[in-house]
Amino acid sequence: MEKTRYSDTELKEFEQLIDSKLEEAYKLLNFYKSQLEDKSLSGDGKARGYDNSVESLETENINILAARQSKYIKHLENAKLRIMNKVYGICRETGKLISKERLMAVPHATLSIEAKKSN
User: Fold this and answer.
1) Whole-number Å distance between alpha carbons of 107 and 17
2) Alpha-carbon distance 90 to 106, whole Å?
3) Distance (Å, rounded) from C-alpha 111 to C-alpha 90?
4) Quick check: is 68 in a domain?
5) Which positions ≥6 away from 46 have C-beta within 8 Å?
6) What is the pLDDT of residues 75-95, one digit of tens each?
7) What is the C-alpha separation between 14 and 9, in angstroms, rounded?
8) At 80, which CATH number?
9) What is the pTM of this model?
10) Range of the domain at 13
11) CB atoms within 10 A of CB 83
12) 1 domain residue, yes or no
């Protein structure tokens, strides 16, 4: 008989992994936010002769990184909800279990390798 969901013990293991990933992700997001805050508070960029377009480009790049990090955090938080609902690790395309190895590498994955390749 094929396994249809991960055990509570396995789900707890995944939850711990996701919690550690979330902790790292929030730290990085806070770093980006502090960089943006520092840029908005410091007026000496122009005083040192920086070109305004370079400063704008740097700020835009940090904003992009912060947005990407926020999206990653949302994916991880959604994965925790799936754990809570005991549907974590089930491929949204095939309905089969995503391999444990894939989930350990990409804990917010919602597609199995098989489904990912067919897309």
Assistant:
1) 8
2) 13
3) 8
4) yes
5) 52, 55
6) 999 999 999 999 999 999 999
7) 9
8) 1.20.120.910
9) 0.84
10) 8-118
11) 20
12) no
DSSP secondary structure string for all residues of 33-96: HHHHHHHHH--HHHHTT--HHHHHHHHHHHHHHHHHHHHHHHHHHHHHHHHHTT-TTB-TTT-S
Q: What pLDDT digit, counting tens, does each position of 32-44 carry?
A: 999 999 887 776 5
CA distance 40 to 43: 8
**Splitting the chain (119 residues) into consecutive groups of 10 residues, what average pLDDT does each group show?**
90 98 98 90 55 79 97 98 97 95 97 90
Nearest to 92 by CA among 104, 106, 82: 82
Residue 37 lies in a domain: yes
Output phi, psi for 27, to 5 deg: -60, -45
Contact 18, 80 (CB under 8 A): yes
How many domains is the chain built from? Answer: 1
| Number of alpha carbons in the 13 Å side-chain half-sphere of residue 108 | 14
8-state DSSP, 99: P
Is 2 part of a structural domain of the chain? no
